[in-house]
Amino acid sequence: MADGTGETTGKNMGRRTRAKGRESRRKIIEAAAAVAGERGYEGTTIAQVSRASGLPASSIYWHFADKDALLAAVVEESVELWLGQVTRGEGESLAERVTGFCVGVARTFRDSPDFLRLVLMLALERRPVEPAAREIYLRLRGEAIDRIAAELQQVRPRLTGRDAHLLATYALTGGDGIFLASLTGDADTAALFRLHAEAIVHLVERAEASANP
Predict the structure, then answer these.
(1) pLDDT for position 160
(2) Which helix (H) or strand (E) holds 150?
(3) Domain residue limits, the chain
(4) Residue 84: CA atoms inside 13 Å, Cβ hemisphere, count?
(5) Is the dihedral of CA 23, 58, 77, 105 positive or negative?
(6) Closest by alpha carbon to 204, among 106, 129, 105, 96?
(7) In sequence order, what DSSP letters do the residues of 28-46 get, joined into one string?
(8) 8 Å CB contact between 115 and 140
């Protein structure tokens, strides 16, 4: 009568194999983000990702069909964290919400610098056939702007939808600019974000007053 030992061993091996596969995938994605953050889409190759991850190219191709699929996965894996940070609504007042937004953007500077460099490069690089990674980023960036606009209208319901969307775009674009300034190494990002938050609050209040004289 079978004691089930073989079946149990097989299940354990299967779990270890899946865990190893997840670990390899994670190493590949992290290495790809680092390489692409430095070299951009065009400058990134599977060979470079292989060296950075310490895994053979065959392992990368086992998980991803090509470079485009790999970098698309980098964006998809990272963007949820990014969206959660930059669209987190906390506090009741406008100043609290705006400060929370700025803190969230600043946190992504610390937690995901390679990802931010990559997506900014993707936004700037244009080519006849757009890579999936760029399309994904631009679509999700649009969703982030919509969420921020909704947050602004939640605390300032008299703000028009057009103004809310314009201000949300400005808020996210300002964060991009501060990130670029931080790459120079001599920017006081904390002070810049304080100024950015003050500017957003002022612009929201002015837009609201103009729409409701």
Answers:
(1) 94
(2) helix 132-155
(3) 8-211
(4) 7
(5) positive
(6) 96
(7) HHHHHHHHHHHHHHHH--H
(8) no
Phi-psi region at 196: left, alpha or beta (left = phi > 0; alpha = psi -120 to 50)? alpha
How far apart are the C-alpha atoms of 41 and 121, rounded to whole Å?
A: 8
pTM score: 0.75
Tens digits of pLDDT across the chain (213 residues)? 456 566 555 555 456 666 677 889 999 998 998 898 888 888 899 999 999 999 999 999 999 999 999 998 888 877 766 777 666 666 678 888 888 888 878 877 777 787 788 888 787 777 777 788 888 888 888 988 998 899 899 899 999 999 999 999 999 899 889 988 888 877 888 899 899 999 999 999 999 998 876
Per CATH, the homologous superfamily of domain 8-211 is Tetracycline Repressor, domain 2 (1.10.357.10)
Angle between helices 189-211 and 94-111 (to 10 degrees): 140
- 99-105 — which CB contacts under 8 Å span 24+ positions? 99/197, 101/148, 101/151, 101/171, 101/197, 101/200, 102/175, 102/193, 102/194, 102/196, 102/197, 102/200, 103/193, 105/172, 105/175, 105/178, 105/179, 105/193
Q: Judging by beta carbons within 10 Å of its beta carbon (0-12, 13-18, 19+), is residue 29 exposed, middle or buried?
A: buried
The angle, 0 to 180 degrees and rounded to 10, between the axes of the packed helices 132-155 and 113-124 is 110
Q: Are 179 and 120 in contact (CB under 8 A)?
A: yes
Pair of tokens at residue 62: 């086992």
